[in-house]
Amino acid sequence: TLPFNSHLLLFLTSFLAAASSSFFMSCSRFLGSVGTIIIKCKDLRIIQLDIPGMEECLNIASSIEALSTLDSVTLMYPFFYRPMFEIVEDGWSAFLPEKEFEVLSSVTDEWRLSYINKDFSICPSYPPVVIVPRSIDDETLQKVAVYRHGGRFPVLSYYHKKNGMVMMRSSQPLTGTNGRRCKEDEKLVNATLRPGKRGYIIDTRSLNAAQQARAKGGGFEQEVYYPQWRRIHRCIERFNILQESLIKLVEACNDQSHNMDRWLSKLEASNWMTYIKEILTAACLAAQCIDREGASVLVHGTEGTDSTLQVTSLAQIILDPDCRTIQGFESLLVREWLQAGHPFQQRCAQSAYSNSKQKFEAPVFLLFLDCVWQILHQFPCSFEFNEHFLVTLFEHAYASQFGTFLGNNENERSKLKLQQKTMSLWSWVNQPEELKNFQNPLFEANSLVIWPSVAPQSLQLWEGVFLRWNRPSRFLDEAEEEMRRIIDYNRFLLDKVNSMRKQIMQTETEDGMDRMQEVDSAANV
Amino acid sequence: MEHIRTTKVEHVKLLDRFSTSNKSLAGTLYLTATHLLFIDANQRETWILHHHIAAVEKLPLTTSGCPLVIQCKNFRIVHFVVPRERDCHDIYNSLLQLSKAAKYEDLYAFSYNPKQNESEQVKGWQLIDLAEEYKRMGVPNDYWQLSDANRDYKICETYPRELYVPRTASKPIIVGSSKFRSKGRFPVLSYYHKDKKAAICRCSQPLSGFSARCLEDEHMLQAISKANPSNRYMYVMDTRPKLNAMANRAAGKGYENEDNYSNIRFQFVGIENIHVMRSSLQKLLEVSGTKGLSVNDFLSGLENSGWLRHIKAVLDAAVFLVKAVAVESASVLVHCSDGWDRTSQVCSLGALLLDSYYRTIKGFMVLIEKDWISFGHKFSDRCCQLDGDPKEISPVFTQFLECVWNLTEQFPQAFEYNEAFLLQIHEHVHSCQFGNFLGNCQKEREELKLKEKTYSLWPFLLDEQKKYQNPLYKPSFSPNLTLLEPNTVSFNFKFWRNMYHQFDRSMHPRQSVYDLIMDMSEQNKQLEEDIKQLEAKIKQKRGRSDAVLVKEHQQSAHPAPVMLKTPPFFKKDQPLIPLNDAVLIFAFAQWCLTRLQREVSVPCQLLSALHLLYQLDSDFPLKNILYKLVLYHTSETNITDNIGKRYQFVIV
């Protein structure tokens, strides 16, 4: 039993639901008989509660502490959350790989679905169903899986309808120090190439790091064995370096300092914007290889669960207009992040205010969302969704009443029986009345490839996340509202003018008909 | 023109400034008396006004030709490659001559002829009337009066003729005070806050040295504080860093000693001088102009340039000033060294924060005329209009515009004007195309007879004010409180990309929300007009036929949205024309048939439908639409069978 008084409990739970972020850290200090609890939330908000009575304050603090550091996933909110809305479309079955494949098979028959991983035995972090070249049988896949880190053999990530080029993703090959090769792997990789065409392998590590990986049994594709492929190294930072970056950035943003130099040097020292540029550049490179060079691409880093996914998913946003719609973006997240096995539970455990070192924590997904926001910022009419949608996804990835982002891969999710025991985020998001809040009123379907600028002058700090709680936003919100009003009013006026025009034309037609009949009858006479 | 040796060079290449792949555009370079013009192969024109050229540089010869880099005062940088070195040399020399005028009469403004007649020219100059502006503020009144002391520029050459001073400040006090102030710039009224009865006054530094004092000057300050019935304390803001002010004492200048002046509160606010600002901008431009710049180099370059720190310092000073006036109802006297750079920045920004009038298009013009032009900000020296001392150049006015831009970012609905307005003013401060900013002070302008020989910029900006209107502007923005209280925490200040990379298109967002909203809000006005006209038309028709009226009612019960005059951003997935509109289809099919069968008679409803469709889009894909129409039509039941059959014939 928790020693909350009922009023506070109500306040806290309502806050939980409203801000959809569970508390994560609290520290208490006392001034006289009033205790103060400072709550630092995963969505970067900081709340201070002054509570009269030392004992009460301590009780509340320890309860919050206990509740925010639950040991077991099954004790988390999604398992207790009961939706207050009616489910129109079940989000769990909204984006099935079979459905996605149907679309693909209507354009090409070079690919097939493989159920080789249906019991997660070949690759624990892959989904049960993957798309592979038709010419490669499951037996070959099995051998390739052994040769790739964590069993993550190359699978299809994206098919570029415009020219039939593809993007594959995998993990590093296990060449080791003695340069082991795997003919099946070479066969699989080459099966994605058109005759006479070359491909690009984008390794998301520096050459140095890739070489060092050999000592640990990893490595990279050697030119001798993959003569049709050109390897490009694009260093994207990973793991704890990213986490430190986030912590530094948030710290800088929370500093209400009037010292300009300190702010700029802190912003610089966080390196956050550098990582944004790195990731966007790598994604642009992949997109360029596919669209401009007409070459197929294989992307991997070490495990193929982090930087690899950033690159493949961003490249798709650049290339594929479908990914810029709400449904398409959700489908992209399901395919390239959830099913592809980005370990959300490890990466998004504590957010920026963690005081204990979390070994696997890293804001990989937040960086991806930030990159999407950068592109959205540069092409504000090409996305069906708005900034609020991205911010919401950020919040839910870290703390949510929905089960979507729980677990580290499909394997764990199926063990947790999330589909039966929790709600899908998509069931909630895709309700018409919720969707309204995420729609971009300026959206105009743009079937083109959109190339973002990665010049430092073009990149901006994502204020909607990082300065959200630090500055008054009233005037900006009101301006936003006014903008919406102008757009809505424009639609209203257009409709009205058109219906009036039509009305007039109708009467003119009637007139004309009458006259024509007159002419006809006159002619008959 | 004697300076032009070559007027036209062909096969010149224009390099992309930031592209790493050495992309270039070939074209022809023309040199005219006023402009450098480049026309590329796509017939796109790049005009560069000679006065805008800040520096021309010839780089070492390369295999493809002789590179010529031109840096402009509006931050455009163009990089040409001229095939022959001799041509390059000629152009280089010509531009060196043409970009630096030796005397005012050589400036563009004296030859610019916008085809206005004389009375329009005079009216243009009368558009901004400062006497009217002081009246708007509520002076003269019981405490403040117009002084004729400087009517003939006898007391201060760099002040305007008309100055407002406290009623209790007699002429001897004014004269005495002016003798104790650098360049004779004694304390005068800059802005009067009617409600608080507090004044913003401006002057230059006192010639106090280490111990000198001047009773008249002390009386002058006392007169200012007594002219404010709400608070007898007044602030004296020295906008310089304390160290600079102290150093000035050695030269017999300095700052007010609080012991000698009664009821003053003295405050330094630490804005750096023109030289620091000049080199800061230089550093900023070096960083932002680097090819293949990394994020960290950009951020550390931004930090090292100190530019944003200076912008923040200026705005912080204005915020301090505004707090004194708005919260304490205190009068404030602002000065720096000579009282024409930092003082102009702080006084004008203060007024902008206090008074919503200056946030309108006209009001902003007034503000610039008052605090910058009339009070003698040295535009000519600071913007290097004539070939002069390079140490006098400084981006003081640019900083002011940047502060305003920062405010528009924080208060998107508080300003009637937009960023384009600020950029356009910046453009013309340097263009020397209009007379407003020529010269260093009013006296000089009168001697140049600018009002007869040149034109005023403001009427031209007002004529095209649609371009400069902020679609989100709300005049009633915080109605009871016209005061703006900006947040000046560091993260609010951003690099002004649209100013410093205005001409580097590749860096800008590819789609501009702001432009769309502007177009839309413009279109909304047009649509409102259209609706009025259509309503009148419908009314007229209703009067004509009752039978039609009945049908109209039936129709309006199911209004099918017909997209006519569709704006570009709504084209989306909608078909070009409404396929469900039976009338149009009918008309079109008929027309199609008549064309095919070479029938001569064209029914009248067809004509009106056609007319409408042509209004839609002049180059509309007729064939496609016909095909679609006819295809669609085979399933349309509204039309008589007879006509339906004939359509099928057409498809075949």
TrEMBL record, chain A:
GO terms for biological process: negative regulation of autophagy; phosphatidylinositol dephosphorylation. Pfam families: Myotub-related. It comes from the Eukaryota. PROSITE patterns: PPASE_MYOTUBULARIN. The keyword Signal applies. Residues 1-21 form the signal peptide. Residues 476-510 form a coiled coil. CDD domains: PTP-MTMR9. Belongs to the protein-tyrosine phosphatase family. Non-receptor class myotubularin subfamily. This is Myotubularin phosphatase domain-containing protein. It comes from Meleagris gallopavo.
TrEMBL record, chain B:
PANTHER family: MYOTUBULARIN-RELATED, MYOTUBULARIN-RELATED PROTEIN 6. Substrate binds at N273, I274, C336, S337, D338, G339, W340, D341, R342. One of its GO terms (biological process) is phosphatidylinositol dephosphorylation. Residues 510-544 form a coiled coil. One of its GO terms (cellular component) is nuclear envelope. The active site is at C336. InterPro entries: MTMR6_PH-GRAM, Myotubularin, Myotubularin-like_Pase_dom, PH-GRAM_MTMR6-9, PH-like_dom_sf, Prot-tyrosine_phosphatase-like, Tyr_Pase_AS, Tyr_Pase_cat. Residues 124-500 form the Myotubularin phosphatase domain. Belongs to the protein-tyrosine phosphatase family. Non-receptor class myotubularin subfamily. This is Myotubularin phosphatase domain-containing protein. Keywords: Coiled coil, Hydrolase, Lipid metabolism. One of its GO terms (molecular function) is phosphatidylinositol-3,5-bisphosphate phosphatase activity.
